[in-house]
Structure formats: structure tokens, C-alpha cells
């Protein structure tokens, strides 16, 4: 059974308050989303396997550790997930990036897939699916369905703000994955997370 992790590091919580503020403009919003994603990646990769290595230091041999070479793919859900990619890549520069395009029908809130391009060895990689918002959970569930259909086995979902409804739906649909969020908010209202931060895609890209 996957776990639900809240990233309660003070820097993450402080930066989250900046992007929640309705007076924060596009530039700063984009920058801070990247900073939070970078900090979250630090925690999300905490269980990465290490192997023993001997390193010659100027003073002798250190019995040390290095990453065991597990390959990672970052998969943003378009559009808003794109805002989280650079911050994670900064920490994991050799990760590959796949893309899944999803949009929610504004009336029914049903997600629709319109694009999917993944690294060809996706089944060998640890996959970090990223999207700032987990609202009803429909987009995340469909994106993870699409990834599993194409062979992905080892998946984590990373978001900034989650709603209880979305966490429950995602846990029920994909009980094997871990969910990482910076916040669990109160509720959904007309498909939007309250208090949330508004429409993440519009705030990142300055559309409205
Ligand atoms: C937003 C957000 C998620 C989705 C979450 O995307 O970025 O992908 O809604 O909602 P859900 O959990 O109810 O599915 P949106 O459909 O607005 O598209 P965009 O990223 O292109 O703005
Ligand atoms: N998508 C967003 O961008 N914001 C929400 O509050 C819910 C879904």
C-alpha cells in the first residue's frame, strides 16, 4: 500500500504561502514553484538505493556510498506539471522527461488525454509524475493509468496542493503508489481546491 507524505519542511511551507497569495505575479509564481519542486525532490528521492564504493581520498581509502544508478523519469502532466520539471531536474540532471497531456472538461471535470510521449525504457525507470494540483484526482488517475498501460511499474505522484477527495480517489485507484504533497487543503468547490492557489496553469503561464 502506498503512503501519503506531507512535506512539512519550513522552507517548503514558507514558499507555498508565497504562491498561494493572490497578489503573487507570474514571474515569482513560476520561480517559487520551481524552488518548491527542487526541495520536494530532495525528500521524494530519500529512498533511492545506494551501493558501497571505495574512494581514494588524499589521506587513504574511504568506504563510501554512491547512488546505485537507478534511472529516473520525470513525467509532468501538461500544462501545469511543466512548472515543476526544472526544479527536479536541477537535483536529478540525468533524469529523462516524458510528457502526458490532460485537460479537464470545465463542465464535467472529466479529464481527457491529448498527448503522451515517454522515454522508451519507461518500464526500467522510477517515474515521478508531477502536477501542482491534485483536485478530484481524475487527471492523476488517468495519467497513471496511461503510464502503467505503457509499462511503468515504479511510480510516485508529486504535487504541491491536494484535496482530500483527490487523495482518496488516487489511493483507491492506484493503491501501489506513494503520494507526496506540500499541503492537504480543506475541500473542493466547483472542482477548485479551497483555499488552494487558484488555477495553477493560468498562474504559471499568465493565461486567463
Ligand atoms: C489542472 C491541474 C491538474 C488538474 C487537477 O489542470 O494542473 O492537472 O487540473 O484536477 P483534477 O485532480 O480534478 O483532475 P487543467 O485541466 O486545468 O489543465 P492545465 O494544466 O492545462 O491548466
Ligand atoms: N486545478 C487547478 O489548477 N486548481 C485547482 O484548484 C483545481 C484544479
Automatic annotation (TrEMBL):
It comes from Fructilactobacillus sanfranciscensis (strain TMW 1.1304) (Lactobacillus sanfranciscensis). Pathway: Pyrimidine metabolism; UMP biosynthesis via salvage pathway; UMP from uracil: step 1/1. Its EC number is 2.4.2.9. It holds the Pfam family UPRTase. One of its GO terms (molecular function) is GTP binding. Allosterically activated by GTP. The gene is upp. It catalyses: UMP + diphosphate = 5-phospho-alpha-D-ribose 1-diphosphate + uracil. Uracil binds at residues 193, 198-200. Its cofactor is Mg(2+). Catalyzes the conversion of uracil and 5-phospho-alpha-D-ribose 1-diphosphate (PRPP) to UMP and diphosphate. This is Uracil phosphoribosyltransferase. Binds 1 Mg(2+) ion per subunit. The magnesium is bound as Mg-PRPP. Transmembrane segments: none annotated.
